[in-house]
Amino acid sequence: MEKVAIITGASRGIGREIAKTLAKKGIKIVANYNKSEKEAKELKEELQKEGYKIEIFKADVSKKAECKDLAKYTLEKYKKIDILINNAGIDKYQLITEVSQEDWNEIINTNLYSAFCMCQEVLQNMIHNKNGCIINISSMWGIVGASTEIVYSISKAGLDGLTKSLAKEVGPSNIRVNSIAPGFIETDMNKEISNQEKIDIINNIPLEKLGKTEDIAKCVNWLIEDNYTTGQIISINGGWVIT
Ligand code: NAP
Fold first, then answer.
1. What is the mean pLDDT of each successive set of 10 residues along the chain, which is 243 residues long?
2. How far apart are CA 191 and CA 207, in angstroms?
3. For residues 113-148, b (16+ Cβ closer than 10 Å) or e, as one string?
């Protein structure tokens, strides 16, 4: 039977690439978006034209009630959820002294609380089916910490904590939970980075190149196929950080 996947933040960047990759594998996709409705509609049109199964659903996943709506829509439409990709995320470059309560809430709720809520919403169905694959898109900054991205780094370290704890809790129900921790992937998230800054970054990467959204989607594809990996933080960063 065809698998069903929810991907949060699938309108652009890494989430969009994951949606395309999984749809082309024959998985039924519910692609979540929040602000980028035009991009989400284009994605749906492009994939449906090629005969793949994709629905789009607007939800601000930083809000628990909207996570509930996203899971409910998927269950009503497809009756089950096999795969959850917690990908939606935002970043802000700030010194710790510049971080307001609003900044903290916005970043933590979008990057971490969203994943926690989405896991709560899908798990009942996954546990019932004794089958599930949850992938959290974290970041190498959650592992090594980033100056001027302190709340982002905290949110991603928290996401990896969620991965490890939940993997232990739901492993007996045959549900695998893993993080993918990307390095520098060329998307809108990095559009403010200048060419000179990119060259400086590349000079610190053993593989001497930046990452592409496809590099992350390939790992998602592999994790979905796998059945013995759980609780792991998988680094995809060209060797920029080796722990
Ligand atoms: P991006 O191009 O800026 O895309 C971000 C996506 O997240 C968009 O589809 C956006 O949807 C969605 N999103 C943001 N807030 C949301 C909310 N409240 N509710 C629902 N969706 C929301 O960023 P990206 O580079 O693809 O990043 C994807 C994930 O990878 C993030 O978690 C990021 O932290 C992580 N990551 C990226 C890099 C990198 O170098 N690019 C490195 C490490 C980790 P809308 O536009 O529709 O609102």
1. 97 98 98 98 98 98 99 98 99 98 98 99 98 98 98 98 99 98 98 97 98 98 98 98 96
2. 21
3. bbbbbbbebbbebbeeeebbbbbbbbbbbbbeeeee
Any atom of ligand 1 within 6 Å of the Cβ of 21: no
Query: Active-site positions?
Result: 152
The finding on whether 146 has its CB within 6 A of some atom of ligand 1 is no
From the CB of 11, is ligand 1 less than 6 Å away? yes
Per-residue pLDDT, 29: 98
Q: What domains lie within the chain, and their CATH numbers?
A: 4-236 (3.40.50.720)
Side chain identity at 94, as an amino acid letter?
A: Q
